[in-house]
Design a protein that fits this description.
With about 200 residues, the protein is mainly α. Helix content is about 60%, strand content about 0%.
């Protein structure tokens, strides 16, 4: 980042390459729209470039980066809530989609275990999306391997103990909401989503 502060475009390209997938995944799970997540990921790195002079080495780069990504994602969510419009991609209200496993036109059928897995992932994503913003953000950041509780606390602007509490509450809400989909009360199921 010090090299980026001096205008080094190669260093900037390295940072983008190293963090773009993590930031995209985080934003996608926050805004739940692929096109918007791609745009916001790009905007995050544009902001990094524009704000490079203001970056202080006292903060870990990834913490600063996730803070920018989070702020942009929240701004998008707020913008959407002010300007609600039906998506052109959304199905018409009178349209009833036929379940994939009942298609009878000779197309390849999806195996039942894959359907169950896809349903589980969809339910988990829906449940995470319904969490309050701080819980959702904390949980999504907690899933990232290189983001510590201290960094999550800094991104959220709360204490480490409050961060642990928020993550615990989020997991409890998900555990209750997804109880019917889990074999056990544990999140260690290797075939299911990582929480």
């Amino acid at each position: 980042m010090r090299r980026v502060q001096r205008g080094d475009r190669e260093a900037f390209a390295e940072l983008v390459e190293r963090y773009k997938q993590q930031i995209y995944n985080f934003i996608l799970r926050t805004v739940r729209d692929q096109t918007e997540a791609e745009d916001l990921t790009q905007n995050t790195f544009v902001q990094v470039w524009k704000s490079a002079k203001r970056y202080r080495v006292s903060a870990k780069f990834s913490t600063w980066l996730y803070t920018i990504a989070r702020n942009l994602a929240l701004n998008e969510i707020r913008r959407r809530s002010r300007h609600r419009a039906q998506s052109l991609d959304a199905p018409h209200p009178d349209y009833e989609e036929q379940p994939l496993h009942q298609v009878k036109d000779g197309a390849t059928l999806i195996p039942p275990d894959q359907l169950v897995r896809e349903e589980l992932f969809a339910k988990v994503e829906e449940a995470i999306g319904d969490l309050p913003e701080n819980q959702r953000t904390a949980l999504l950041l907690c899933r990232e391997e290189d983001v510590t509780y201290e960094e999550i606390a800094e991104i959220l602007g709360v204490s480490v103990s409050a961060t642990k509490s928020v993550i615990h509450r989020a997991r409890e809400v998900l555990r209750v909401r997804l109880k019917a989909y889990l074999r056990t009360g544990e999140w260690t199921n290797q075939s299911g989503p990582k929480l």
